[in-house]
Write a structure and sequence with these properties.
Elements: H1 10-18, H2 23-33, H3 38-43, H4 51-63, E1 67-72, E2 75-83, H5 85-88, H6 91-104, H7 109-138, H8 147-166
Helix pairs in contact: 6-7, 7-8
Length: about 170
């Protein structure tokens, strides 16, 4: 079944695939939060996605080749979602969106720290992160550097500092 597109413009085609309210949020949560199960994506997202919307986005993202799903060996009715190479290649786009959002929106400090580090780290950090995501999601070699750990440590440090200041 061929899908009718508004135009062949690459920006239009990308927006047709990713431009709804939730698709990039789901990819973000898998990419930066390592949330791989439906329940984690449903309950641990800051934005509070509805279960029917999440199910629809996971299905659409899988059908479009941005996610893959395999059965969880611990529970046959559960699936484990993984990024595919096309979604891993969204790292530079998400890094740029985060940088733009830090400059032009009232983003919180704790939710901005990863964007700040990715902006400062630039393409070298993005490539290292993509290599790590390939290892985690599609079986690539395990890199020496863990950008995921660096981003998570920075986030936890900001949260701890803010919680300490609030106490």
């Amino acid at each position: 079944m061929d899908i009718a597109h508004r135009s062949g413009c690459p920006i239009n085609l990308t927006l047709e695939m990713l431009g709804d309210r939730w698709s990039l949020i789901v990819i973000r949560d898998i990419m930066f939060g390592n949330r791989r199960h439906f329940r984690e994506l449903l309950t641990q997202s800051e934005e509070g996605i509805a279960s029917n919307v999440l199910a629809d986005r996971l299905k659409r993202l899988s059908e479009s080749g941005l996610l893959s799903r395999r059965d969880d060996p611990s529970h046959k009715q559960k699936g484990i979602y993984s990024l595919t190479e096309p979604s891993i290649q969204l790292v530079p786009l998400l890094a740029q969106m985060g940088a733009w959002g830090r400059r032009h929106t009232p983003a919180s400090e704790e939710l901005s720290i990863r964007a700040e580090l990715l902006e400062e780290g630039g393409p070298a950090m993005w490539e290292a992160f993509m290599a790590e995501l390939r290892s985690l999601h599609i079986g690539g070699p395990v890199p020496e550097r863990s950008v995921f750990a660096e981003l998570q440590a920075a986030y936890l440090a900001v949260v701890a500092r803010k919680n300490g200041a609030a106490a």
